[in-house]
Amino acid sequence: MQLQLAIPTNIAAPYQNNYKTIAIMSSSEYHLKCKCSAFEAVFNTPPRMVFNCQCHSCVAAIAAIESKESFNGTSMKCNTPSEENSGAAIAIYKSNNVTVTKCDESKVAFVKVGEDGKIARPYCTECGTVLFNVWAPNWCAANLNALTASDGCTYAPKKEVMNVNCKSSFDKTKISNPKHNTVPFSMLFKFIPLIAGMGCDGSNAKDEGGKLMPDDITKVESVPITWE
Ligand SMILES: [Zn+2]
Ligand SMILES: [Zn+2]
């Protein structure tokens, strides 16, 4: 949101322009942009929560997308000492707070994990940036590394980002602190209402946001499951 304030300046400087426009950027607006700007979304609030998911599925799906030869995007990998164990850096939002402002359907492709995978992660085929780890009608898990505040700087979480689902990681010993074997109760407490759709308007399924869901999940590229 941009507020335009028209300030009369004719009192101080009567022979100059009568009005001076000052743009005040709202500090509560956040943007998700892929590297090539083919995709853009705006959020009217900071993320509901942020975390790094270290589970096999997230790590494998992101690695598959980002190891494509054409990859030149903003990585969704979180900072861990080990590249093979780099989980997904996630910002959780409910549907009410997301507006997709730019989305070219021809530049969005998906990756699922396993032939029967139910989650299709949308990414930009132009630059390779993973856009969302989950895009559901009521909520989404955005690429935290591609999230910027209204000043254009990368969103900086206030606290150290928790690594979750470490029990399902490839190598727990290589994950940095703070870490949790599953998902801490405090996070679950915020998460369950979203998954249940409470307080969510389902708007992610409509308009531009609808392009972030595949027409037919059976035709989505799948990453083989190698860890069961
Ligand atoms: Zn892009
Ligand atoms: Zn995960």
Q: What's this, in brief?
A:
This protein has 228 residues and is mainly β.
Tell me, briefly, the overall form.
Answer: globular
Q: Count of helical segments? A: 2
What is the rounded Rg?
Answer: 20 Å
Beta-strand percentage?
A: 25-35%
Describe the 3D structure.
It is built from two helices and 14 strands, in the order βββββαββββββββαβ. The chain has 228 residues and is mainly beta. It has a single domain (28-223), classed as Metal Binding Protein, Guanine Nucleotide Exchange Factor, Chain A (Beta Complex), CATH 2.170.150. Strands 10-11-6-5-13 form a five-stranded mixed sheet. Strands 7-4-3-12 form a four-stranded antiparallel sheet, with no helix packed on it. A three-stranded mixed sheet has the order 9-8-14. The chain is globular, with a radius of gyration of 20 Å. The chain starts with a strand and ends in a 5-residue tail after the last strand. It binds zinc ion (ZN) (2 copies). One zinc ion binds at residues 53, 55, 57-58, 165.
Key terms for this structure?
228 residues; mainly beta; Metal Binding Protein, Guanine Nucleotide Exchange Factor, Chain A; five-stranded mixed β-sheet; four-stranded antiparallel β-sheet; 2 helices; binds zinc ion
Chart the SSEs and their pairings.
Layout: E1 2-8, E2 19-25, E3 30-33, E4 39-43, E5 49-53, H1 56-66, E6 88-94, E7 98-103, E8 108-113, E9 121-124, E10 132-135, E11 139-143, E12 147-149, E13 163-164, H2 185-196, E14 221-223
Parallel strand pairs: 5-13, 8-14
Antiparallel strand pairs: 1-2, 3-4, 3-12, 4-7, 5-6, 6-11, 8-9, 10-11
Residues 53, 55, 57-58, 165 line the site of one zinc ion (ZN).
